Amino acid sequence: MATVAAPRRFCRCACFYTENLYVARYGLHVRFRNEQQLRRDYGPILRSRGCVSAKDFQQLLAELEQEVERRQRLGPESAARKALIASSYHPARPEVYDSLQDAALAPEFLAVAEYSVSPGADLKGLLQRLETVSEEKRIYRVPVFTAPFCQALLEELEHFEQSDMPKGRPNTMNNYGVLLHELGLDEPLMTPLRERFLQPVMALLYPDCGGGQLDSHRAFVVKYAPGQDLELGCHYDNAELTLNVALGKVFTGGALYFGGLFQAPAALTEPLEVEHVVGQGVLHRGGQLHGARPLGTGERWNLVVWLRASAVRNRLCPMCRCEPDLVDDEGFSDGFTREEPTTVDVCALT
């Protein structure tokens, strides 16, 4: 009798609860274990950025404690939101929940994916079908979705935003947007996008970063608008590889900017700027230092997909840069697994 493999259980690294806590007011990511450690490690730089009085520091301390508590509740609260949305939410554009069809994808993207699985496909041939934004930084661009699909997805996202359904933050830095797995778009849209299209492309572009071993993702949409988030500070993604697609709307400003691989933010002096093009996706390594310039006018919505390979991250957490201390969690979590990783050349280890 044939046996069916049990679903894989994905985990977080315990550093999620202590490392890389973002303090937007001071433009700083911090490690936080207790007040004494915070004062010792960050006192001088916090004072230089305006955290001067005892009241300032106590306010910061309370915010960090609240953020740690929020992160500890994330898994169960996200699962509860997803269940409520599945039972009570009525989509405006139900067709975006159908299984991903080729008609939703730009012809250029389909051609790139088709080439990537063809006999004899290699990096040189693939690069002839992509825009190379930076050869040195290994940043590329390609149209991903058609204009009608971008419009339909945006209409659905706005409808959900205006509904009374509960909403989780897209990530630890953005406050406005949508987690696609909570909305029910992981299974029909994001998983086939990763498995059928992105993986063969990434296998050729980034074989040293687990591009051919992608086994999970975290997909979310971020929104920038007046009175909401306007910009995004320097950071690395909790991902081996990232796809960032501009969905719309009409806007000025908000360009992406890039530094080096795992470069310290303070050392960023001459970043590479990349303008958004609606429907097109920027491909880059998760460890590439990057951020977003302030929005000028309008609204900007972007789909961000963090692509993860457990064979890579099980050896070295990209956030704390140590062997991961695994904690069980819900869904794809942060893409770590308890299985032994396969042998792989890891760019993050170099």
Automatic annotation (TrEMBL):
Pfam families from the UniProt entry: OGFOD2-like
Cofactor: L-ascorbate
GO molecular function (one): oxidoreductase activity, acting on paired donors, with incorporation or reduction of molecular oxygen
Domain annotation Fe2OG dioxygenase: ranges: 215-309
InterPro entries named in the record: Oxoglu/Fe-dep_dioxygenase_dom, Pro_4_hyd_alph
This protein's UniProt keywords: Dioxygenase, Iron, Metal-binding, Oxidoreductase, Vitamin C
PANTHER family on file: 2-OXOGLUTARATE AND IRON-DEPENDENT OXYGENASE DOMAIN-CONTAINING PROTEIN 2
Listed name of the protein: Fe2OG dioxygenase domain-containing protein
Organism expressing this protein natively: Colobus angolensis palliatus (Peters' Angolan colobus)
